[in-house]
Amino acid sequence: MKYRKSIAIARFKSRLIHLPVRGVINETLRLFPPVPLNVRESRSTSFSLPRSDGTYKVPSEVPLYMPAKTTIMYFPLLTQRNQRLWGEDAEEFDPERWIDPQRLTKFTANPTMYTPFSAGPRIVSTSTSSAHSF
Ligand code: HEM
Questions:
Q1: Are 132 and 126 in contact (CB under 8 A)?
Q2: Measured from the CA of 35, which atom of ligand 1 is nearest?
Q3: Please, which residues have CB within 8 angstroms of residue 107's CB and are 6 or more apart in sequence?
Protein backbone atom coordinates (compact mmCIF):
# COMPACT_ATOMS: atom_id res chain seq x y z
CA MET A 1 0.00 0.00 0.00
CA LYS A 2 2.80 2.38 1.03
CA TYR A 3 4.75 1.36 -2.08
CA ARG A 4 1.76 2.05 -4.35
CA LYS A 5 1.32 5.49 -2.78
CA SER A 6 4.95 6.44 -3.40
CA ILE A 7 4.66 5.34 -7.05
CA ALA A 8 1.58 7.55 -7.41
CA ILE A 9 3.46 10.49 -5.87
CA ALA A 10 6.49 9.90 -8.13
CA ARG A 11 4.21 9.79 -11.19
CA PHE A 12 2.49 12.99 -10.12
CA LYS A 13 5.85 14.75 -9.56
CA SER A 14 7.23 13.67 -12.92
CA ARG A 15 4.08 14.97 -14.62
CA LEU A 16 4.33 18.23 -12.66
CA ILE A 17 7.85 18.87 -14.00
CA HIS A 18 6.47 18.99 -17.53
CA LEU A 19 3.57 21.30 -16.76
CA PRO A 20 3.82 24.90 -17.96
CA VAL A 21 4.21 27.18 -14.92
CA ARG A 22 2.01 29.87 -16.46
CA GLY A 23 -0.65 27.24 -17.13
CA VAL A 24 -0.53 26.03 -13.52
CA ILE A 25 -0.92 29.58 -12.19
CA ASN A 26 -3.72 30.48 -14.62
CA GLU A 27 -5.53 27.24 -13.94
CA THR A 28 -5.27 27.68 -10.15
CA LEU A 29 -6.70 31.20 -10.44
CA ARG A 30 -9.42 29.92 -12.79
CA LEU A 31 -10.72 27.24 -10.42
CA PHE A 32 -9.94 29.07 -7.17
CA PRO A 33 -10.15 32.82 -7.82
CA PRO A 34 -9.13 34.68 -4.62
CA VAL A 35 -11.93 37.18 -5.39
CA PRO A 36 -14.74 34.71 -6.24
CA LEU A 37 -17.45 37.38 -6.46
CA ASN A 38 -17.34 41.09 -6.98
CA VAL A 39 -19.72 44.03 -6.88
CA ARG A 40 -20.23 47.10 -9.04
CA GLU A 41 -22.84 49.86 -9.25
CA SER A 42 -24.39 51.00 -12.53
CA ARG A 43 -24.01 54.55 -13.81
CA SER A 44 -26.07 57.47 -12.54
CA THR A 45 -28.29 57.31 -15.65
CA SER A 46 -30.16 54.25 -16.88
CA PHE A 47 -29.24 52.61 -20.20
CA SER A 48 -29.68 49.49 -22.38
CA LEU A 49 -27.11 46.72 -22.18
CA PRO A 50 -25.27 45.71 -25.37
CA ARG A 51 -26.66 42.66 -27.19
CA SER A 52 -25.60 39.22 -25.90
CA ASP A 53 -22.75 37.49 -27.74
CA GLY A 54 -24.84 34.32 -27.88
CA THR A 55 -23.02 32.39 -25.13
CA TYR A 56 -26.24 32.31 -23.14
CA LYS A 57 -29.78 31.98 -24.43
CA VAL A 58 -31.64 35.23 -23.90
CA PRO A 59 -35.40 35.13 -23.44
CA SER A 60 -36.04 37.86 -25.99
CA GLU A 61 -34.33 40.09 -28.53
CA VAL A 62 -35.48 43.15 -26.61
CA PRO A 63 -32.41 44.90 -25.13
CA LEU A 64 -31.98 44.50 -21.38
CA TYR A 65 -32.69 47.60 -19.35
CA MET A 66 -30.15 48.63 -16.71
CA PRO A 67 -31.58 50.96 -14.11
CA ALA A 68 -29.42 53.75 -12.72
CA LYS A 69 -27.36 53.31 -9.53
CA THR A 70 -28.10 49.62 -9.18
CA THR A 71 -25.82 47.13 -7.45
CA ILE A 72 -24.59 44.37 -9.75
CA MET A 73 -22.82 41.23 -8.57
CA TYR A 74 -20.71 39.04 -10.83
CA PHE A 75 -19.11 35.72 -9.99
CA PRO A 76 -15.71 34.86 -11.51
CA LEU A 77 -15.95 31.56 -9.60
CA LEU A 78 -19.00 30.55 -11.64
CA THR A 79 -17.96 32.07 -14.98
CA GLN A 80 -14.57 30.41 -14.75
CA ARG A 81 -16.16 27.00 -14.15
CA ASN A 82 -18.93 27.40 -16.71
CA GLN A 83 -19.03 24.42 -19.09
CA ARG A 84 -20.48 26.48 -21.93
CA LEU A 85 -17.39 28.63 -21.83
CA TRP A 86 -14.68 26.16 -20.80
CA GLY A 87 -16.00 22.88 -22.12
CA GLU A 88 -17.16 19.72 -20.39
CA ASP A 89 -13.91 19.47 -18.44
CA ALA A 90 -14.44 22.92 -16.89
CA GLU A 91 -14.19 21.52 -13.34
CA GLU A 92 -10.93 19.70 -14.09
CA PHE A 93 -7.53 21.12 -13.22
CA ASP A 94 -5.78 21.04 -16.58
CA PRO A 95 -2.91 23.57 -17.02
CA GLU A 96 -2.46 22.41 -20.59
CA ARG A 97 -5.67 24.13 -21.66
CA TRP A 98 -3.59 27.35 -21.50
CA ILE A 99 -1.08 26.20 -24.08
CA ASP A 100 -3.43 24.48 -26.50
CA PRO A 101 -4.02 27.07 -29.29
CA GLN A 102 -7.39 25.57 -30.22
CA ARG A 103 -8.78 25.64 -26.69
CA LEU A 104 -7.38 29.16 -26.21
CA THR A 105 -9.35 30.55 -29.18
CA LYS A 106 -12.51 30.81 -27.11
CA PHE A 107 -10.71 32.72 -24.39
CA THR A 108 -8.94 35.13 -26.74
CA ALA A 109 -12.31 35.87 -28.40
CA ASN A 110 -13.98 36.48 -25.04
CA PRO A 111 -11.35 37.52 -22.44
CA THR A 112 -13.95 38.30 -19.76
CA MET A 113 -14.57 34.59 -19.27
CA TYR A 114 -11.42 34.71 -17.11
CA THR A 115 -11.38 37.59 -14.63
CA PRO A 116 -9.41 36.67 -11.47
CA PHE A 117 -7.85 40.14 -11.63
CA SER A 118 -11.12 41.81 -12.60
CA ALA A 119 -11.32 43.55 -16.00
CA GLY A 120 -11.44 46.97 -17.61
CA PRO A 121 -9.83 50.10 -16.21
CA ARG A 122 -9.69 48.71 -12.63
CA ILE A 123 -7.89 45.47 -13.53
CA VAL A 124 -4.86 44.54 -11.41
CA SER A 125 -2.10 45.76 -13.69
CA THR A 126 0.47 43.45 -15.23
CA SER A 127 3.16 45.34 -13.31
CA THR A 128 1.58 44.34 -9.98
CA SER A 129 0.78 40.83 -11.05
CA SER A 130 3.03 39.03 -13.50
CA ALA A 131 0.63 36.06 -13.46
CA HIS A 132 -1.79 38.03 -15.59
CA SER A 133 0.55 38.66 -18.51
CA PHE A 134 0.19 36.07 -21.25
C1 HEM B 1 -3.07 36.43 -7.35
C2 HEM B 1 -2.87 37.73 -7.14
C3 HEM B 1 -3.95 38.78 -7.22
C4 HEM B 1 -5.28 38.67 -7.49
C5 HEM B 1 -6.10 37.42 -7.82
C6 HEM B 1 -5.84 40.00 -7.43
C7 HEM B 1 -7.17 40.30 -7.65
C8 HEM B 1 -7.70 41.57 -7.64
C9 HEM B 1 -9.05 41.93 -8.01
C10 HEM B 1 -10.14 40.95 -8.47
C11 HEM B 1 -9.16 43.25 -7.89
C12 HEM B 1 -10.41 44.08 -8.22
C13 HEM B 1 -11.17 44.42 -6.98
C14 HEM B 1 -12.36 45.25 -7.38
O15 HEM B 1 -12.29 46.00 -8.34
O16 HEM B 1 -13.37 45.15 -6.72
C17 HEM B 1 -7.90 43.77 -7.44
C18 HEM B 1 -7.63 45.10 -7.23
C19 HEM B 1 -6.39 45.60 -6.95
N20 HEM B 1 -5.23 44.90 -6.77
FE21 HEM B 1 -5.04 42.89 -6.96
N22 HEM B 1 -4.84 40.88 -7.14
C23 HEM B 1 -3.67 40.19 -7.02
C24 HEM B 1 -2.43 40.68 -6.75
C25 HEM B 1 -2.14 42.00 -6.55
C26 HEM B 1 -0.82 42.54 -6.27
C27 HEM B 1 0.44 41.69 -6.15
C28 HEM B 1 -0.97 43.87 -6.13
C29 HEM B 1 0.04 44.94 -5.81
C30 HEM B 1 1.31 44.73 -5.57
C31 HEM B 1 -2.35 44.20 -6.33
C32 HEM B 1 -2.89 45.46 -6.30
C33 HEM B 1 -4.21 45.77 -6.52
C34 HEM B 1 -4.73 47.12 -6.53
C35 HEM B 1 -3.96 48.42 -6.31
C36 HEM B 1 -6.10 47.00 -6.81
C37 HEM B 1 -7.11 48.15 -6.95
C38 HEM B 1 -7.14 48.57 -8.39
C39 HEM B 1 -8.20 49.64 -8.60
O40 HEM B 1 -9.31 49.48 -8.13
O41 HEM B 1 -7.90 50.65 -9.25
N42 HEM B 1 -3.04 43.03 -6.60
N43 HEM B 1 -7.03 42.73 -7.29
A1: yes
A2: 10
A3: 113, 114
| Spatial separation of the C-alpha atoms in residues 54 and 39, rounded to whole Å | 24
Angle at CA 31, nearest 5°, toward 133 and 55?
85
Q: Which atom of ligand 1 is nearest to the CA of 38?
A: 16
125 in contact with ligand 1, CB cutoff 6 A? no
Give me ligand 1 centre to Cα 131, in Å.
Answer: 12
pLDDT more than 90, % of the chain: 48
pLDDT in the model for residue 71: 97
How close is the Cα of 76 to the center of ligand 1, in Å? 14
Enumerate helices (H) and strands (E) in the chain, giving the number of each.
5, 4
pTM over 0.90: no
In this model, does residue 134 exceed pLDDT 50?
Answer: no
- Closest residue by CA, ligand 1 atom 28: 128
pLDDT in tens, 30-86: 999 999 999 999 999 999 988 777 776 777 778 889 999 999 999 999 999 999 999
